[in-house]
Amino acid sequence: MGLLNRMSTVVKAKMNTIMDRAEDPNETLDYSYQKQLELLQNVKRGVAEVTTSKKRLELQRAKLSQKMDQLESQAREAVKSDREDLARKALERKSAIIVQAQSLDQQIAELEEEQAKLEAAERRLSAKVESFRVKKETIKAQYSAAEAQVKVTESLTGISEEMADVGLAVQRSEEKIETMKARSFALDELVEKGILEEFSGGDDVERELAEVRARDRIESDLARLKSEEGR
To answer: What separation in angstroms does the CA of 96 have from each of 39, 99, 141?
Structure first.
């Protein structure tokens, strides 16, 4: 179990690292904001539906009121005409309509309560969404600034590395120059001490001997030519 737990921890750590590299905070914030807007739209849609339903019931209630007034008028006219039977019939219909109207009144009251709750929820959610939008833009701006700062720092780091390489190259060049100077000074010192002249003296003798041999060949060739020409 210990090994499995360690492996699980390592895998989770690596996955988190991969997710951190792949995740774009701007996209995450925009996605969250979009989901909140969708939720807000759903609440607004609910408010609109409840309002529409309430309006429909109110129209039905108004028609029932008109019908009750009409039946009341008919019952009154029947009484005036000594038609109690018709008056009773009209009042019975009115009574049934009153029951329907009371039911509609209860439904309308319930819808009004539901509408008030949804409107309050809409206001709270709208305020939260707006607050999140402001915070989102602030975070995005901060992230962009931090990202730019990181890029600048990375650029400066690259420049520092390049300058370090240049410094090493300059140092190597200076070391070579110092080595060449030391060698030159050493050669000068050897020349001053006559050490190099001793080694080069043999070359001077050989050169003079070569010149003598060349002159001898020239004189020999000249004598031969004179002999051939009879001079």
So the answer is: 43, 5, 66
